[in-house]
Design brief:
The protein has 11 helices and 8 strands. By secondary structure, it is of the alpha/beta class. Helix 2 crosses helix 4, helix 5 crosses helix 6 and helix 8 packs parallel to helix 9. It is globular and about 65 Å long.
C-alpha cells in the first residue's frame, strides 16, 4: 500500500496552490490523539475535528448538542497529533449565530485554547458579516454549504440539497460570496455533482466535497464511517475502505474468552 506523505506542515496557501496545480486534497475527520496520529502519519492533508463528534463520540442523534468547550477538548488532542496536516475545528451550533461580537469571542477562544489552524462555519450569505469579521481578525475560515447538519431541524432531515434551480442558484451565489469574503476553503455536502463542479470552477478557494461528486478539489469523510466502524450508517456517498467493526468485535471476543479460560495473562505475560 502506498501513502502520500509530506514532511512539512500544510498551510492554507499550500491548499490554494494544490487547487491551482490540480492536485486533489484529502481530508478526514478525527476526534482523538491516537487515531489522528495514524491518519497524519499516513499523509492526510487536512484533519477536521467535526461537530459530528456529537454523533460519533457522544452518541447524540444530531450535531446540535456539542459545546465549544467539548470541541476545544477534542481538538487539543488532534492538534498534538498533527505533524503535517492542517487542523480545522467546527464551530458548534449556537457559538456564532447570536452576534458578530459573540462569534468572534468564541472563535478566538477556540483558536487560542485548541491550537487549531482554522475554523469551519455552516451557512452562506446570512453569516457573511461574521465570516468577514473573523477573517479580518486573522482567523482562517472554512465555509460549509449544501446539507448543513446544524440546520437539520429547519431542513427536516438529511436529504439531498440544491436539487431545485432556486436553491442551486443561491448555493452558487453563497459560495462566491464566501470566497470573496476570504474563506480559505468551502465544504459542499450532499448536493448534485454537476452543481458542485460549477461551484468548484467558480471560486478561487479549494472546494472539498462530501456526497458532491469527484470534480471538487478534494474530498472529506468521517473517519469512523470510512473505516467501517459505524455499522448502521450507509449513505450512497460513503465508501468503506476497511471493515473494522467486525475486527474489533472479534478481537474483544478473543480477549473475553482468554480472560474467562485464564489463558490471559500467560506465564510469559506475568511478572
Amino acid at each position: 500500500m502506498s501513502v502520500h506523505v509530506q514532511n512539512s506542515r500544510m498551510t492554507t496557501a499550500r491548499l490554494r496552490q494544490m487547487k491551482v496545480n490540480g492536485e486533489k486534497i484529502a481530508m478526514l475527520t478525527s476526534y482523538d490523539f491516537t487515531l489522528a496520529s495514524l491518519v497524519d502519519e499516513a499523509g492526510i492533508d487536512m484533519l477536521l475535528v467535526g461537530d459530528s463528534a456529537s454523533n460519533v463520540v457522544c452518541g447524540n442523534q444530531y450535531t446540535l448538542p456539542v459545546t465549544v468547550d467539548e470541541m476545544i477538548f477534542l481538538t487539543k488532542g488532534v492538534v498534538r497529533a498533527a505533524q503535517h496536516a492542517l487542523v480545522v475545528c467546527d464551530m458548534p451550533f449556537g457559538s456564532y449565530q447570536i452576534s458578530e461580537e459573540d462569534a468572534l469571542r468564541n472563535a478566538v477562544k477556540v483558536m487560542k485554547e485548541s491550537g487549531c489552524d482554522g475554523l469551519k462555519l455552516e451557512g452562506g450569505e446570512e453569516i457573511l458579516p461574521i465570516v468577514r469579521h473573523m477573517v479580518q481578525a486573522g482567523i482562517p475560515v472554512m465555509g460549509h454549504l449544501g446539507l448543513t447538519p446544524q440546520s437539520v431541524n429547519q431542513f427536516g432531515g438529511y436529504g439531498l440539497r440544491a436539487k431545485e434551480e432556486a436553491e442551486a442558484a443561491k448555493l452558487l451565489r453563497d459560495a462566491k460570496l464566501l470566497d470573496e469574503a476570504g474563506c480559505f476553503s468551502i465544504v459542499l455536502e450532499k448536493i448534485p455533482a454537476a452543481l458542485a463542479e460549477r461551484v468548484t470552477k467558480a471560486v478561487s478557494c479549494p472546494v472539498i466535497g462530501i456526497g458532491a461528486g469527484n470534480k471538487c478539489d478534494g474530498q472529506v469523510l468521517v473517519l469512523h464511517d470510512m473505516l467501517g466502524l459505524n455499522q448502521g450508517f450507509k449513505p450512497k456517498f460513503l465508501r468503506h475502505f476497511a471493515s473494522l467493526a467486525q475486527e474489533v468485535k472479534s478481537a474483544v471476543g478473543d480477549y473475553i474468552n482468554a480472560v474467562k479460560d485464564s489463558s490471559f495473562p500467560s506465564t510469559e505475560e506475568s511478572y
